[in-house]
Amino acid sequence: MPNFCAAPNCTRKSTQSDLAFFRFPRDPERCRIWVENCRRADLEAKTSDQLNKHYRLCAKHFDPAMVCKTSPYRTVLKDTAIPTIFDLTSHLKNPHTRHRKRIKELTEEDIRKMKERRLASSTDPLSFGKDDGADDGTGNNDDEPQLSTEEKEFREYLRSLFEVVVMLGKQGVPLVADKISEGELKSNSLQALLDYRMNAGDEPLTKRFEATAVNTEYLSATQQNQLLDVCENTVREELLMEVRESRFFSLVTGDLVEFASEKHLPLFFRYVNQQNVLREEFLDFVPFDGDEPALVERLEAQLTDRWGLSMEDCRGQAHKATGTSTIKMKAVAVLLMEKYPLALHMPCSHMALNIHLANSLPFPNVQVVMETMRRIGAFFRTPLTQDELEKAISIHYQKNEEKGTTLKQACGSGWTEQHNVFDLLVDMLPPLLLCLDVIRDNDDGKFVGSVTSDAYSIAETLADFEVVVTIIILKNVLTFTRAFGRNLQGETLDVFFAANSLTAVLHSLNEVNDNIDVYHEFWYEEAVSVATVMDIPVKIPRLFLRKQRAADVGEIQAEPYFKEYVTVAIIRGVMQEVEDMFCETNLKALKCLSLVPAVMGQMKFNTTEENYADVYRNDLPNPDTLPAELHCWRIKWKHRGKEVRLPTTIHETLQLPDVKFFPNVNSFLKVLSALPVLKLEDNKSDTASERLQAYFDSTPAKQWNKSLAMLNINTHVKHDLDVMVDKYCRLYAEDDPEGEAKLDEATEEDVTK
Prior knowledge:
This protein is α+β, with helices and mostly antiparallel strands. Helices cover 51% and strands 7% of the residues.
């Protein structure tokens, strides 16, 4: 007779799988935890003997580190194994289907009691039976944990260690600095802080290390990595709990970062939490190696197999890629949308649309311009270089002081990331080149060698006529999308009108394309004029000329060359990118913002959300009643009292106490809120991406650490030391702290904490 898995939403049975199936334990306390994690209300009334005899869980619901294959024919669980990996959301996609294995809906009181019991039991993970199949049937007394003195001291020692590691992570302090020489001990922040704690009277640490030689490291690199991994995974699990509770989310990836010469992709999640507040949180670094299908498969495995999420609930994706990674991430976005059509590919609210469009163009000359802009932004972050730039602006615009003053105000921090960056860059080119020449000459010796070297490199790039032409063309073409992009990052009403103005934007770009000869002539003359001011010769790129000579083709003049290979390429590339980024489905989603009362009022309450609601019909709790509910929603706001102000944002609307009486509207707004194109409302603190960048800026590249970055970025997340101690004890035995287990592969986070 086959064994069926008792987990909700799991249809595996022993005759269809080579997975191991495990009985519920006879130990009453341990069995209770298994049932609690399963969230099967119908199992709660059964005794541990009944469950042991009649019910099984397959190995997919256990942390791989807890499953041991003792031989090709025998698989057993570790002493303290607890099922933690469950799918608790897939049944929500079809709420009308009957389910035999009903999932218990947890109240706030249930969650509170569960956490209290887990904290209490976390002090006693070793008191379970030594063999999962043992028939002793004896329970444990929660009030009297059966721990030896050594085990209690070990847990107190671990707690002190985690407290120190978490503190270092929050402050962004590396545990170990660079080694000065082979014979000299590393400058070890962790070691120094442990010494301080022991001198201050920390008894668990003192007992552990009092006999250790003063020139010996307290913790090996392996032990430090184990501690960091447990901290990282515990913090991540707290965030994943919120994502699972919200169900719908969007993926946002950042620009590539390198750890130990390997490229990784920062992964962020957007979701609306239980307080109806839009959150964007950092979750992990994903390896960037392999081709596009491999990266998609890796993302899916991370989200579904390890984190217990469903890609079917992903409602948006945005990728802030730059350079050569842009093409790869565009292909990844296409593959994800093919598999999950509602994972809409949109621009990210953190990046100006014009910069996103330029980054997306796969032309070498455009990529050189974008990389140079990033270098300029980094180069002028210091007060010394910024002062030099302002002096150069004053010198160049001494006959036009008003414009000089305007430019000096505009070129402050972050000017290379603004919507009108290309307009600013064109006006800044002459003083910028003048400034870089002064820094490169370094007559007064104010600048160090690395700064003068960077100035020389940037100046040589800007002094290329092809770069000048590319900047001029980008400025003029992206003028047509500038207002549209600014509105996309504006208030909800601005985004709604931007979605309805896309037709006009595309019409303008098409008009330029149809009359490209006329437009190119004006733009080329502007480029020649700017180059003349900067003493840059007008010439065709050397590489192109070499290819022409090799092919024995007649020489081409400069203006036709730049028209064909720059102007036409950019205008058509921008048009294609806008059409792809704002397809019909994306526009339908944005037009649903008319659900926000202020947008309704602006439209005189003559809105037609029903025409666009089919995009998210399956996400609604009662889709059949949507038309009637929308009618009531409009009437409610149309006939409001004079003293009632119309909410202007999704966040304001979701905070209304009576929105719960409109369940379809409530669900609709939560899905829309998570779209990555919308700005984070009421976000008074730095965003997760800004905190990540701050960590990289403040930490030397050689000391970057993924786990420390996770702790530093998510300082606002609760750090439960008892949970960390419990997880460490489950994964690493005291007598083998340097075991072979790898936490990043073995630790599947607790899905039902």
